[in-house]
Sequence to fold (516 residues):
Amino acid sequence: MMLFYTLDLFLLHILPTTTAAAAGAAYTAKDFILLNCGESSALNDNSRRSWDSDERTRYAPPNEAAISSASVAFPMNPFVSQVPYETARVFHSPFSYSFPVLTGPECLRLYFYPTTYSTFNSSQSFFSVTANGFTLLNNFSAFLNSPSPSEPSFKKEFIINVQENQRLKVTFIPNTNSSAFINGIELVSLPDHLYFRGDHMPIKFVDRLFYLTNDSALENLYRLNVGGNDVEIQDDSRMFRAWSQDDDYILGADFGYTPHAEDLPIKYTDQTPPYSAPEIVYTTSRVMANTSISLEWAFPVDSGFFYLLRFHFCEIQFEVIEQNERVFDVSVDNQPVDVQVDVIFWTGGTQIPIFRDYVVWDCSYIFWNRVSNDGRRGKKDLRLSLSPNTRGHPKYNNALLNGLEVFKLSDANRSLAVANPEPTGSSSPSPLALKLPGNKKNKGSCVIYPVMGSLIGILAMVIAVCYSRQSIYKHGLSITSRYRTLTTGSRLPLPSDLRRYFSLDDIKTGNFNGNN
Ligand SMILES: *[C@@H]1O[C@H](CO)[C@@H](O)[C@H](O)[C@H]1NC(C)=O
Ligand SMILES: *[C@@H]1O[C@H](CO)[C@@H](O)[C@H](O)[C@H]1NC(C)=O
Ligand SMILES: *[C@@H]1O[C@H](CO)[C@@H](O)[C@H](O)[C@H]1NC(C)=O
Ligand SMILES: *[C@@H]1O[C@H](CO)[C@@H](O)[C@H](O)[C@H]1NC(C)=O
Ligand SMILES: *[C@@H]1O[C@H](CO)[C@@H](O)[C@H](O)[C@H]1NC(C)=O
Ligand SMILES: *[C@@H]1O[C@H](CO)[C@@H](O)[C@H](O)[C@H]1NC(C)=O
Fold:
């Protein structure tokens, strides 16, 4: 326990103080490139962004026409956007696009529509993609990675730091006897310290500090407007990030409440500048229902990688205006990554947004001994849980989340690549499949948890007791908590009647007395 507090104080100390004044103007990306591969003229997409043709572009080699071919999708699924998906560039040998961009973090989005084209069949296409020394994809089949037959096109988002005097060089390398293809390439430069926050901003990694250095690459896996609707790319803070609703990832049937207050202005700060996330992410939220004991989500991820989780918080309910009114713990795979989170304590008031980063390492493949010859370590679900912490007797037993981003970190080999999913009828595992109750106690899940002696031992015991109690009550109350309310106003009752159910008072030891 003490450990966590020491760390918290340290983090608070190094963070810039919150100033309630709105800080800075909206972000404008210095580099912004949209390349519609295989297309011969400039076209607008559904969000009215103009995509350039990649023919005779200065980003491609001069012999482009000789070493690659342009192809048109046939048949074209009517539900797939024509720009940039209707055309592709096909490569039979390694091919590089080279972008002269500024030094710093660049967001690279690769667009794929696996279908048949005039000159080739994408189901037989296996290839690698590298960028500035990172392996983004290896032996990749867009066909096997397609989200679903009804939604066959998809994009992959990576964040790469371009070092001084470097260009961003994206290389497509077909497997032997195969070909590679790409439908569209998007490049947007990001604010310098948005995701790579620098050495002075270490990230919590269980009870340690993790330094996310700029020689890592990130892949965005999930970006959610928790408790709200999908946010289209044109409604993002000029980085064209799509934020989706979180409903599909909720574990169990407990959706809680989704208070929102679109009319409330969000007071951005130096610490949380306006580009961190659009207002709509902070003015919509999900909170716990009366009868619930936690908010829980599950996200399928690839085993064997570090993950960066960014939680976005903002108190917008009129009931919660002071410190110690809503206090909760954040856990990943049943291990606490932060305790006694009090958003008002962090921000100093309501309508002030804040985000917090945590790093976790998924190592379940070691336990399942799952690494196969092709490096397949399997998928697992990363389970997130927010549960009230009643140690300081807060006014309400509740938890809150407004937004969430999940990134995979490149590994020691500078790779983000994994094996293709098994070529079954429904290729990638659907999050819904993970909602089966049997999966909830997946003993294979593990977030690295360094042994720190008896202190942690006691903590683990308390958590174990707490968790088993929670399970009991979850069971008993599951019928009443099986409802979902979409409220239109921001005024919502917050329950306090559950406090007695899992108060830690009766298992309190000397170690757990302080800090109330
Ligand atoms: C593409 O290849 C798949 C098998 O890999 C085959 O089922 C399909 O018919 C092919 N499509 C065309 C148009 O040839
Ligand atoms: C990456 O970090 C190193 C060391 O902190 C620094 O010298 C370099 O300028 C950074 N590069 C970028 C692109 O930020
Ligand atoms: C590639 O194709 C050639 C000729 O069809 C064949 O001999 C060779 O074994 C193939 N290589 C691989 C790796 O499939
Ligand atoms: C890096 O590559 C080496 C050699 O291919 C392999 O043995 C090792 O397991 C890889 N490391 C990771 C973290 O994947
Ligand atoms: C590439 O992926 C396919 C499909 O998952 C697999 O059958 C094949 O063995 C892989 N090839 C290599 C070289 O890993
Ligand atoms: C939740 O709590 C509020 C206030 O205590 C109460 O009015 C409401 O009926 C409760 N809802 C449920 C489903 O128990």
About this structure: The chain has eight helices and 26 strands. The domain at 198-419 is CATH 2.60.120.430 (Jelly Rolls). The longest helix spans residues 454-477. The pocket of 2-acetamido-2-deoxy-beta-D-glucopyranose (ligand 1) is lined by residues 116, 121, 123-124 (CB under 6 Å).
